[in-house]
Write a structure and sequence with these properties.
about 475 residues; alpha/beta; binds guanosine-5'-diphosphate; binds magnesium ion
């Protein structure tokens, strides 16, 4: 087995070193991240594993606190070369005293590290202490990869930093925002490291390839989660006896219970998505839809949104139309299956031997009403869950705030009308109440799985360019 690559992460306090490692290793719990200076006090290792094996061992280090004084001190030491001065310092007394913190950093770097990544907060001006810091690091005679962090901020001093790095003979660099990494920056980071570490090139390229595969797998898994959740909701079917349907209170209670079950399925999908992308339960909120306010769990049944969704799909006429006495129920996002659609579809479908319709017919004769989720509910749910999956794919594991999804407002690429094929693909689930997970009547698992796989392929077209 090849030795894992060892990379020391250095840089000033609060530049985002620990955050970078959380993002690169997808470990939300690694180390301690905070705005207080000096949160990381010791060098601490964290591994990037690929297929279970350690591919890269990162060493997180504390910040260099007093680089200007340390540089002066190093300059005062007698030695033949700069690396020799650093070694002399580490052997000497000050490494235990005034510069104990700095010694930890330099030890991590001069030890068995293959290279260092210097994390830079590009919002900071290039102060003398940062120049001293970079200079000391170059004295350690290890390849250095600057990582320019916080590049999403508007008022960064990126150009000043570029200039300073060039003057320090550091020509490679990557730009990153550990909270919201650009798709592809991780790949670029390892690719660029390969140019700094020719002896490790093959290994680094293998890591890039493996990460791309993992990203693809995660995406596919996410699509399966969304597909499965949609199947659950599409398959939902609850029968209400005629006499309860006639009782307004009972009817309302029944509708609310149905909606609660839809939300339960939605929440399960959200939790499963968080798990696919290695985030914690509760890291994302079923967020607000700005125009309307309120959490989208509730918006799933917001009549205005449903109408909007229906319009985008060209279903406008279906919403609240032709539903007669149950219009108020329909506005709650539900169809009453029996009396309403029966007349329109009986002719064709019944002669085709469509079983659910026969059941509907039976229900009608015995006066049973059935609730199913309306198409716009499925559309909204698909839209929201895809939005969440896309956002999680782009989210760094250093992010501290709760993720909020603003469905369908993420620019022109919003899936919207394109989701119609998804709705069509969901049609078979409508006739399979047994496909709803937790319904206690599971049958036809292989058919459900086949639909889930087909649907996942459709959904994956709503993701945009490949992530890596
Ligand atoms: N918005 C944003 N915040 C960041 C970024 N990197 C780090 N932070 C925040 O900056 C603070 C310091 O980060 P930390 O990783 O503890 O820095 P360290 O001292 O270098 O390990 C934390 O509050 C992080 O959440 C970034 O790229 N963007
Ligand atoms: Mg830290």
């Amino acid at each position: 087995m090849t030795e894992p690559l060892r990379i020391a992460i250095v840089g000033h306090t609060n530049a985002g070193k620990t955050s970078l490692l959380r993002t690169l290793t997808r470990q939300v719990d690694f180390g301690e991240v905070s705005d207080r200076p000096g949160t990381t006090r010791h060098a601490e290792a964290v591994d990037l594993r690929i297929d279970g094996a350690v591919a890269v061992r990162f060493i997180d280090t504390p910040g260099l606190e007093d680089s200007v004084a340390l540089l002066d001190y190093l300059n005062s030491l007698e030695a033949d070369s700069r690396p020799e001065r650093v070694r002399a310092f580490l052997r000497g007394p000050e490494a235990q005293r005034a510069f104990e913190q700095e010694a930890k950093v330099l030890r991590a770097l001069t030890g068995d590290a293959d290279a260092a990544m210097v994390v830079i907060d590009t919002r900071e001006p290039v102060l003398p202490k940062y120049r001293a810091e970079i200079e000391i690091l170059t004295w350690c005679a290890k390849p250095i990869m600057p990582v320019l962090n916080f590049v999403r901020y508007l008022d960064t001093r990126r150009d000043d930093w570029h200039q300073m790095l060039l003057e320090s003979n550091l020509h490679a660099r990557v730009e990153f925002d550990v909270v919201a990494p650009f798709i592809g920056s991780e790949r670029q980071l390892y690719g660029d490291l390969a140019t700094l570490l020719p002896g490790r090139r093959q290994q680094l390229h293998a890591i890039v390839d493996a990460l791309a595969l993992e990203a693809r797998d995660r995406r596919l898994a996410a699509c399966r989660v969304v597909a499965s959740g949609l199947i659950d909701v599409a398959a939902m079917r609850r029968a209400l006896p005629a006499e309860e349907f006639a009782d307004e209170l009972k009817q309302q209670r029944f509708v609310r219970a149905f909606q609660d079950d839809v939300r339960r399925h939605a929440r399960r999908a959200v939790d499963d998505l968080l798990a696919v992308f290695a985030f914690r339960h509760g890291d994302a909120e079923l967020a607000e839809i700005p125009q309307l306010g309120g959490r989208w769990e509730d918006d799933l049944f917001n009549p205005e949104l449903l109408k909007e969704a229906g319009k985008r799909l060209g279903l406008g006429a279906m919403i609240g139309a032709g539903l007669g006495v149950v219009a108020d129920v329909a506005m709650a996002g539900l169809s009453l299956g029996a009396a309403t659609t029966l007349g329109a579809t009986l002719g064709g479908a019944a002669s085709g031997g469509w079983k659910p319709l026969w059941r509907k017919l039976e229900n009608r004769l015995s006066g049973v009403q059935e609730l199913t989720a309306e198409a716009p509910v499925l559309l909204l749910l698909a839209d929201h869950l895809l939005g969440l999956a896309r956002a999680l794919e782009r989210r760094g594991h250093a992010a501290m705030d709760k993720l909020r999804i603003e469905a369908s407002v993420d620019g022109g690429a919003a899936p919207g009308g394109d989701l119609q094929p998804v709705l069509r693909a969901l049609e078979p689930a409508r006739g399979h109440p047994d496909w709803e997970r937790g319904s206690g009547k599971r049958r036809g698992d292989s058919d459900r799985q086949a639909l889930e796989a087909a649907l996942a392929r459709l959904l994956s077209q709503h993701f945009g360019p490949e992530a890596a």
